[in-house]
Amino acid sequence: MFVYDLESSHLEYEIQLKADVTTLSISEDSAYVLLGDKDGIQHLFAVETNEEVRTYTGLPTDKIIIRNAFGGRHDHFVASGSERE
Predict the structure, then answer these.
(1) Other CB atoms within 10 A of residue 56 CB
(2) How far apart, in whole angstroms, are the C-alpha atoms of residue 83 and residue 67?
(3) For residues 20 and 31, what is the distance between their CA atoms, to the nearest angstrom?
(4) Residues of the chain scoring pLDDT < 70
(5) In this predicted model, what pLDDT tens digit does every residue of 8-25 receive, in sequence order?
(6) Which of 47, 75, 77, 84 has its CA 20 to 30 A from that of 28?
(7) pTM to 2 decimals?
């Protein structure tokens, strides 16, 4: 994932995961990005610092569509689920 400064179009930083990214969500306040990978791990990053704040372990996927999302008041929880293709 690439993070750009919208005013200058300058690349701020890049996030690379060990497994392919399957899903991405941005918190309501744009402070966090949640990346899900093919190994079933959800990675929570702070946008300003590029720091991986937390990881959540789920099930790996091959032919299942995974979705993730922030939820609750002020995005206080993370939800991840799947559906079959």
Answers:
(1) 15
(2) 8
(3) 23
(4) 61-66, 77, 80-85
(5) 989 998 988 888 888 888
(6) 84
(7) 0.73
**Full 3-state SS string of the chain:** CEEECCCCCCEEEECCCCCCEEEEEECCCCCEEEEEECCCEEEEEECCCCEEEEEEECCCCCCEEEEEEEECHHHCEEEEEEEEC
Q: How far is CA 78 from the centre of its chain?
A: 10
Residue among 15, 23, 16 at smallest CA distance from 40: 23
Residue that the structure tokens 């791990």 belong to: 41
Q: How many CB atoms lie within 10 A of CB 35?
A: 20
Tokens 């939820």 label which residue?
Answer: 71
